[in-house]
Design a protein that fits this description.
The chain is mostly helical. It has 2 helices and no strands. It is elongated. This is Transmembrane protein.
């Protein structure tokens, strides 16, 4: 799954580069730049939906940051800080 995600990201970057080349070198009013950017946006939306579905069906698991436990003691008081 990770390889597929990386490949899609590389195709997205390639499409963006292609659109840049068309924008700089193509002096006519051809729609190639718009088509390349539309393809890139479609791939980006498709990748986002793929990631959401992979998470929903358990293919991808987030690992995130570890949870920080609140300090033990009196509620509302923090140890080591002067109290007002």
């Amino acid at each position: 799954m990770k390889i597929l995600i990386v490949l899609i990201l590389l195709v997205i970057i390639g499409s963006l580069g292609t659109a840049l080349v068309y924008l700089v070198k193509d002096r006519t009013r051809s729609p190639r730049t718009v088509k390349a950017l539309t393809f890139r946006i479609s791939l980006s939306i498709g990748l986002f939906i793929l990631l959401l579905l992979a998470y929903r069906f358990g293919v991808l698991q987030p690992h995130g940051l570890p949870r920080i436990q609140p300090p033990q003691g009196n509620p509302g008081q923090t140890e080591g800080l002067p109290q007002p």
